[in-house]
Each structure stands twice: as structure tokens, then as C-alpha cells.
Amino acid sequence: MTRFAAIDCGTNSIRLLISEIVGGVPREIHRTMEIVRLGQGVDATGELHPDALARTRAALERYVDTMLFEKVERVRMVATSATRDAENREDFFAMTAELLGRVQPGVQAEVISGEEEALLSFRGAVRDLPADVGPFCVIDLGGGSTEFVVGTHDGDLAGATSAQMGCVRLTERIMRSDPPTASEVEIARDYIRERLDTVTTLVPLSRAATFVGCAGTFTTLSALAQGLERYDPSMIHCSELNFDALRVLTGQLAATPSAERAMNPVIHQGRADVIGSGSIIVQEIMDVIERETPARSFVISEKDILDGIIDSLRDPA
């Protein structure tokens, strides 16, 4: 059986999924994530920081070793917001070509558009959800951008867009204090609302019956809401978060110093300083959903763009 590997390198984290196909269905072999903060300073300088490149290289070397051990034959790596914005992105590409070539000659990271990122995320996020609770709006909240895509379970898409708002971008650009000041939070809200106004003109949120949150901010919020003592993907996947309770939780997170957040075992050390910004983004998204639809909760998916990439490898069409 052919083993496939998907790598997603975003602004904050780099993640790996290795799967094989059994009876036409992907079977997960290995899934892991490391916080490398590739987008460190990109918003201000326009370039990938040497330290960020070094952290990313070290993580990717470990991933390559894992792929070789698991006998992966085909790999696809996508790079999103941070590399789209960086002037020195060719240094990053050369590094990925060198390392990924050990697994599959000629492969290197691809910079995909925000729209393709949204489509791949949708494909993965709705895989385990029942078709009859659709149409779905999948929201992939990342470090540099947030993707919105509306469609049905069978892939009939009504709209997709990528908004340049993410937890790292907002932390570095606006919410710099720890915890953020009231003024910083209000400026951040204005920034988010401007981008959400564009989202609502491009994507028909009102057609969605179920809103699906994926990626680290949403999954961490689910772990916190459930009071988990450790991060447990099986408890998080397909869990439901009520908006009213989530507003209380996100408000508390945004007002808590990052050192105190980091003491909670379900918050990754590399996410503790940015989940406050992520919480403000989630609050504003909830407000928009309530204005546009009757929905009052998120379904949380542990599956996302990585699972969509696996699908694209085994079924390129």
C-alpha cells in the first residue's frame, strides 16, 4: 500500500500527517505538530527571520526522518500565509527542496493561494460529519490568516475566501501588551470587523447550517471548555461549543497573562502568547454568525487541511 504524507507549514506551526489507504479509506499512521513561528516578524519586516527558518528546518528534518522510517512514497507540503508575504521565500523553498527530496525527488513546498487553502481545509474538516447537518461553513483560524468556505458534504462549494487576520498577525501588529490593553483589544476588533465585512460579501454565510472550527485556536478552546487534563484529540474531534459559554471562556483567555495561560496543560507553550488574539477573532466571528444565521454553536474538527492534502495526493482530480 502506498503511504502518503501531508505537511502544512503555516505562520505559527508546522504539522505532519502520514496516512495509507485501506479499502478506499485513509488510515492515519502518524500525526504531529510543532510550533516553529515561521511568521516571526514577517508582518513588520517582510522577510522570514533567520531564527524562524532554522526552527522550521530542524522540525522538517525530524519529519523527513519519520517519513523515511514509515516508508512514505508520496509527499505534498503546502506553505501558507507567512511564505506568501515574505520577500526571502526562496531561501525557504530551497531548504524544503533539499529535505523533501530525500523522500520524493523533485518535491518542494508549494505556496498555495488562500482560496486553495480554504478548499483543502473544507475537504478535510467535513469528512467525519454527517451530510444531513450541512451545508457547512468551515473556518480555519491560523496564525496569519483565517479561511472561510461554505459548501455541502459532497464538495459543492458556494464560496471561499482567505482573510488576512490570524492570531500571530494580530498579536504582533496590535495586541502587543501581555495581557492586551482595552485600547489594543478595541483596535483589534475594528481590524477584524473590517475583514469580516469583506468575508460576508464574498462568502454566503447565511447558507450554512453548521459552522465548523478547525486548527489550533478552535481545538484548544474545545479542550479548555471540556476541562480536559491533557490534550486529547478523540475528545475534541466533533465536539460542540455553545456561543454563550465560549464568549465567557474567550473573554477570560484574552484577559489572562500568557505565562498563566501556559500553565494549563492543554495549551501548547508556543500557543500561549497568541491564543488571546485568537479568542478575540473567535468572538467577532460569533457576532457575525449570529447576525447572518440562526446558528449558535461551533462543531470542532481535528481534521483539516492535512486530511485535504492527503485526499489531493490519492485523488489528484
From TrEMBL:
Domain spans labelled Ppx/GppA phosphatase N-terminal: 18-306
UniProt keywords, alphabetically: Hydrolase
An annotated Gene Ontology molecular function: guanosine-5'-triphosphate,3'-diphosphate diphosphatase activity
One Pfam family in the UniProt entry: Ppx-GppA
EC number: 3.6.1.40
Domain of life (superkingdom): Bacteria
InterPro entries reported in the protein's UniProt record: ATPase_NBD (IPR043129), GppA/Ppx_hydrolase (IPR050273), Ppx_GppA_N (IPR003695)
Enzyme class label: hydrolase
Name of the featured protein: Guanosine-5'-triphosphate,3'-diphosphate pyrophosphatase
Native source organism of the sequence: Corynebacterium lowii
Lineage: Bacteria, Bacillati, Actinomycetota, Actinomycetes, Mycobacteriales
Gene: gppA_2
